Amino acid sequence: MSIDHSFFQLVQEEDLNTCVNCGLCLPHCPTYRVTGEDLYSPRGRINLIRSVKHGELSLTKEVVHALDTCIQCMGCEPACPSGVQYHAIISPAKAEMHSRWKWRDITLRCGLYVVTHMRSLRIFTLAVLLAQKLKMVPKKMPVPALSFRQPQFHLEDEDASKMEVLLFTGCVMDAWYRKVHIDTITLLEALGYSVKVSGDEYGCCGALHEHAGFADSAARMQKKIQRPQSNSMMVVNSAGCSASLKNTFAGSRTVLDINELLFRHITDLQRLLVRRTETVLIQEPCHLRHVQGISREVKELLEIAFTVAQLEDDGLCCGAGGSFSFSQPTMAQAVRDRKIEEIDRVIHSNSSKTIHYLASANPGCLSFLSGASIDVEIVHPVTLLAQSLISQNSTGGVQ
């Protein structure tokens, strides 16, 4: 690729200059931790973007690879003493690269097309399911075990005396993790809410596309879902989607991650949940902890019913990163390996109790971690909470 002085002009000089090259972001960057090279750190990538923007550096394949391999976990932002808005730097840079060279990411584009249309996603899901039954899918492929039996929504009748909420069902979350939606509805109804579901009318929120750098596709999808079915509060049980939807509806509609809403009812849940003997290890999705600042909420919710264990890696990314595990499998697996080392350390620690569950509130993390050899059940925290309802246990639910 030849030098082009017009690259990255949408990246603001003010954002670039906020970085003082102190390097405090380095320990919080998963790709730097894997490679040990400054090129693959937030500081290094900012310097690359600045040099290309100023015409001091060609946008070579090496530079493109360094930028493409940013997972955008945003672990660097809360660690930065200068308040660098790294997302405002890397997002437009990646979007520009994808818009200029559409041919180079055709495989990823095809993959994201599938989740854009719910019918195609369900056909793809059926194909994967059949392949799983025939044992043709590698165990390490980041896809959960699927089932022909898709649970159906059974919503309580409308009640004008109850506050209505809209559960955003999304794309992959609905096709692969419908059970989490059922459990979310169970919890919300137990707390006195009247629940509606967004369904295929909304479909995908565009978070995967936005994260991958397909800004135009993401904008079209966001525009579609901005046509409200109602003005009720929207609840989202996928960390990546809740982070994206908060931006989509900023100032026009209340959007809450399910963990935020449940935490508002922590006193009620202390009355509604039974105490169990199992121990849960929490894996915090980046877009929950780093982007939305939701961390202690999940821990305190699970502590109502379980003994909780935590990782000691400051929320380092698991490598899933939206579509990152598909587009950059080598780097993603290297990052995951470091995460698994920490998970295994806690699981096999002599000082900790037996770990029964690994809980993560994002489908990408759930799927990617399911492709690793972990000795415990990987589950969404909402499912554990729903299983712990007194009403569920008194009618033969999970003990």
UniProtKB/TrEMBL annotation:
Gene Ontology molecular function, alphabetical: 4 iron, 4 sulfur cluster binding; metal ion binding; oxidoreductase activity
Pfam families the UniProt entry points to: CCG (PF02754), Fer4_8 (PF13183)
InterPro entries: 4Fe4S_Fe-S-bd, 4Fe4S_Fe_S_CS, Cys_rich_dom, Glc_ox_4Fe-4S, Helical_ferredxn
Domain 4Fe-4S ferredoxin-type span(s) in chain numbering: 10-39, 60-84
Protein's UniProt keywords contain Membrane: no
This protein's UniProt keywords: 4Fe-4S, Iron, Iron-sulfur, Metal-binding, Repeat
Protein name: Unannotated protein
